[in-house]
Design a protein that fits this description.
heterodimer, A: mainly alpha, about 80% helix, B: mainly alpha
Chain lengths: ~80, ~260
């Protein structure tokens, strides 16, 4: 007979599940995109024209991420 | 006496983001509480709501002050990343709903669904545990999202008091509306609100991710309005493009 998980185990699992749903949910591509956006901007800080480039790159990458996710949703809805 | 006040564009964006996000989340919580109250009695609905509010207050008291000790650049980078993800999720969902690619969030349908679930489970002797848990979960989960937004937006802009006050006003206003309109929450233009909040959250996410990485935005806080304008135009273009796609698809299907 399997034992029921303890209250603490259930609390930790519920807490992890909340953050997973909150940040990843059904759009893992947006989670990955945010990491890429921050990573690319951080890499740019090593270059000479960091500020000017970052001001353009940050919003452009956010728009591209949104466009990619919307395209994914459109493709998914076509298959249905 | 003349009192000079200056309201920065950063304050305007902060107040709008917190107020609209709190309204959207509270409408969702209120739908569940009203369904529980009308179906199983108000005592359990109010008890579940009260306990959820107490737990949420304890969480704020426990974790809120700790965030003040985190270095601001790290805090803004993490908060910026979280808001970027959350904002893009909201914006994506509201664009898909505005174009008909996703079913609209129907408060009436959620209300009926909750009522049906509660009616399917028979009354329990003594305290109505099912009704209590349902009201608690509804308020706690939606309230947790409000608190995350208030703490992240408020701490990063050093205006946690203002953010909390604005959220409280939104909660009270939605509760008052709930009392007045009873269960007709479907009249709230939720998708338009969600789209506006999505734009503001992506704006803050971009701004603070940049600040966390030591980007100096031209015009300082004023850049928030510029970014919000850019994202609003992009959102409008996405909606137009996807409506055309849906229209073409419907024409092909009906031909």
């Amino acid at each position: 007979m399997s034992e029921r998980p303890s209250a603490i185990a259930r609390l930790v699992k519920g807490f992890g599940q909340f953050w997973w749903d909150f940040l990843v949910g059904d759009t893992p591509e947006l989670f990955i995109a945010a990491l890429v956006i921050i990573g690319v901007t951080a890499l740019l800080s090593e270059t000479g024209h960091f500020n000017g480039a970052a001001i353009v790159v940050l919003p452009v990458l956010a728009v591209l991420a949104l466009a990619t996710s919307l395209l994914r949703a459109v493709r998914f809805s076509r298959r249905k | 006496m003349f009192i000079a006040t200056s309201v920065s564009s950063g304050t305007v964006v902060l107040v709008s983001a917190v107020f609209l996000a709190s309204c959207v989340e509270m409408v969702e919580a209120l739908t569940i509480v009203l369904a529980v109250g009308h179906t199983r009695g108000w005592r359990s609905a109010f008890e579940g709501t009260g306990v959820a509010l107490l737990v949420l207050s304890a969480l704020v008291a426990a974790f809120g002050p700790a965030l003040v000790h985190v270095p601001l650049s790290i805090l803004r980078l993490v908060v910026g990343g979280v808001l970027l993800i959350f904002g893009m999720q909201w914006l994506r969902k509201s664009i898909l709903r505005a174009t008909g690619l996703k079913a609209k969030h129907d408060e009436d349908a959620i209300y009926e669904e909750t009522v049906a679930t509660l009616r399917a489970t028979g009354a329990t002797p003594g305290r109505d545990r099912i009704a209590f848990v349902m009201a608690f979960k509804g308020v706690f989960l939606e309230g947790l999202e409000v608190i995350i937004l208030v703490i992240t937006l408020g701490t990063s802009s050093h205006r946690i008091g203002l953010a909390a006050a604005v959220a409280a006003v939104a909660v009270v206003l939605v509760a008052l509306c709930g009392v007045v309109v009873a269960k007709q929450l479907s009249s709230v233009p939720e998708n338009a609100l969600k789209m506006s909040v999505g734009i503001l959250l992506v704006t803050y996410g971009t701004f603070w991710s940049g600040e966390g990485l030591r980007v100096r935005w031209p015009g300082g806080d004023s850049m928030l309005l510029g970014l919000a304008g850019v994202y609003a135009i992009v959102t409008w273009l996405f909606v137009l493009a996807l409506r055309r796609e849906v229209g073409t698809r419907n024409a092909v299907t009906s031909a």
